[in-house]
Model the fold of this input.
Amino acid sequence: MYKIIEKRELAPGIKLIKVLAPEIAKKAKAGQFVILRVDKTGERIPLTLADWDQKEGTITLVFLEVGVSTKKLGRLNKDDVILNLLGPLGNPTEVKDYGSVCVVGGGVGIAAAYPIARALKEAGNKIVSIIGARSANLLIFEDEMKEYSDEIYISTDDGTKGYKGFVSDLLKDLLVKGYKFDMVYAVGPALMMRAVADVTRPYKIKTIVSLNPIMVDGMGMCGACRVIVGGKTRFTCVDGPEFDAHEVDFTELVRRQRAFIEEEKKALEIFERGELL
Amino acid sequence: MSKRDRFKSVPMPKQPPHERIRNFNEVALGYTEEQALMEAERCLQCAEPQCVKGCPVEIDIPAFIKLLREGKFREAIMKIKEKNSLPAVCGRVCPQEDQCQKDCVLGKKGDPVQIGRLERFLADWEREHGVELPEKKPYTGKRVAVIGSGPAGLTLAGDLAKLGHEVVVFEALHEPGGVLMYGIPEFRLPKSIVQAEIEYIKKLGITIKTDTLIGRLYTIPELLNEEGFDAVFIGTGAGPPIFMGIPGENLSGIYSANEFLIRVNLMRSYLFPKWDTPIKVGDKVAVIGAGNVAMDAARCSLRLGAKEVHIVYRRSRAEMPARKEEIENAEEEGVLFDILTLPVAYYGDEKGWVRKIECIKMQLSEPDETGRRRPVPIPGSNFMMDIDTVIVAIGRRPNPLIQQTTPGLKVNEDGTIVVDENMRTSIEGVYAGGDIVTGEATVISAMGAGRKAAKSIHEYLMKRKK
Ligand SMILES: Cc1cc2nc3c(=O)[nH]c(=O)nc-3n(C[C@H](O)[C@H](O)[C@H](O)COP(=O)(O)OP(=O)(O)OC[C@H]3O[C@@H](n4cnc5c(N)ncnc54)[C@H](O)[C@@H]3O)c2cc1C
Ligand SMILES: Cc1cc2nc3c(=O)[nH]c(=O)nc-3n(C[C@H](O)[C@H](O)[C@H](O)COP(=O)(O)OP(=O)(O)OC[C@H]3O[C@@H](n4cnc5c(N)ncnc54)[C@H](O)[C@@H]3O)c2cc1C
Ligand code: SF4
Ligand code: SF4
Ligand code: FES
Done:
């Protein structure tokens, strides 16, 4: 059982929780994730480590409420407990001095991009970050990202803050203006990561994305998280979650993410009617 | 009794097929006391019992049957437990026909003694009448870390605890039991029985830490050097599913058997939406492969509402690796067998959901030098099958994480861990056993390995100074 010691709503539908998990906090590295199960009947869901504190023995998770599991999690408050928590999972980000790195975060993915930006900054890189959301009120982790960015750019789909458009458009603008990056790092919705990959491809900039397929065990046993990378089937939970964006078959990733969409919708309706509690 | 035909075994009651395909309750119902006594009566109490040789852990079968016959059920189960700490499990899932019952003398002229059913009866009797704990040796001050809580790890943990060592079992999943919990379905091995067997082992004084993935949270060198363990046992079992690598295999609706069974068993998705993990099974299901895992997946599909379930297998009936009893059960329940058939491609609809399989017919070649008849494709025999769910059950590789994160650990080409005859790995103080050493095998062989490693670790610990 893992106790929640802090809870905040960062934006409508986006919540942050700090959970007491000293063993995980001690081992956590940028780019890794956990799998948790809220309660006895719960599903195992993956969430990226948005932060951790060894001294305090806590990890921080930021999540968007999209379905039953994330809504159940969102209903928990300070001092409530999460039944199961497994981690850290996945390969850590390869942190070294690349030179100049552009870190792109979309939506709730900004929180997942944050530890990566921090680690890369601490390793000596120049960090240019681009963060974006649908609308100004949904933009999270701006201050956190600023702290580790040499330059920061903001976009919103509706233009309520910063550049009007997608993060990938903003990235393209910078490249057109002559920005040179040794590496681009993108975390966010699959379609956003694909757009970023499409932007950097002609410039031949090495681009890394952190993939988010459906997972079950998270330890390489089920194959639910399989994705095609460079024509080969890879398991995201153990071979990833980070892959070369130019090699990823995003069409398939998006398709597989939607495999249970009808069931999820049905479950959510029942849940919202209060019949599952 | 004298009127009974000595060569005919007492049948075990089962749920009728038309009823059982609508529920996840256990199919085989077990002997009543009367039936158990009747079956036990058939044993000839051989002076040189062949049955014992067939049992991988060499249970003294005639002795326990004799005690059973005398109505001494408590003594009988204790006799079994001298060698086997999971009798309720083994009585249900051991491939008895290839092991203890294979060479039973009665089998020469008729049915062998139904040893597994008797073992099951005694284990179930004990669970109902209260379990007695064996004596424990005084605490030795030695600490052993066990990685994986499958039958290998659990058996070893129980044995070492009885010998007075402190044992901590690390399990990555949220429930202990390994394949017994996440793989073998409820209707063949009820989870409450696995849990009861685990409770028994826990009572011997072991700690089970779930949600702990060794290799990520702690590595083996860390367990030995920082966490204060004197020895480590690796019982991580089989993991990554093998796919065929044919076109369309990543379409939605194509599961590995592992994913399918983990969803159904560990995550209880047959209770969706009361339990949160979804599963989707269409009307027509194809299960690729014909082992125990394939039969389990096929029979789960029926229970989840599939109208037509096919086992698609590239060899012939005689080569099917599943237990005979499970093939028969599947057949009774209406599973169809497409033998000598090999999938070559999958095709999906506009949403990326699988809709068709292209298969090719196979024939068995002349026996090669090894005497095996290989299946070879018949050119031009391709055909299409309409299908909306596929479950690939063609095997699994050993779990690789420990091998990748333990410098100096010797590993075979197929990913299994190298051990000597005492289950020692290439690293001092580190032992391994079960599927991670043998590749996919059986519950009882994993237990046997755990038992052997326990003995070896005990000797090592007692010789060691510190
Ligand atoms: C390695 C990894 C790290 C992740 N990190 C975060 C994170 O830090 N914060 C966060 O909010 N989310 C993260 N996700 C996504 C998160 O796991 C899913 O949103 C969650 O499992 C949805 O569960 P649910 O029951 O609430 O919704 P469901 O009812 O399962 O799904 C609702 C909707 O979300 C989509 N969906 C389901 N699973 C996923 C998935 N794995 N990825 C994307 N969409 C999905 C479905 O298609 C559906 O439209 C991560 C996923 C992975 C694989
Ligand atoms: C569907 C199915 C049906 C079967 N039917 C039968 C049958 O009828 N009869 C029979 O005899 N055999 C059957 N088998 C085979 C049998 O279950 C296995 O041979 C046996 O369980 C192997 O035991 P084990 O202890 O080696 O490993 P497992 O039972 O596989 O347990 C290994 C455990 O280790 C955990 N683990 C792995 N890596 C780590 C790590 N890094 N850190 C922490 N924990 C870890 C896993 O989560 C798992 O719980 C079946 C197998 C399957 C899949
Ligand atoms: S453990 Fe298995 S092989 Fe041994 S006697 Fe029991 S059923 Fe037979
Ligand atoms: S071989 Fe058969 S008849 Fe003989 S002791 Fe064993 S079970 Fe009994
Ligand atoms: S989530 Fe099961 S293999 Fe990756």
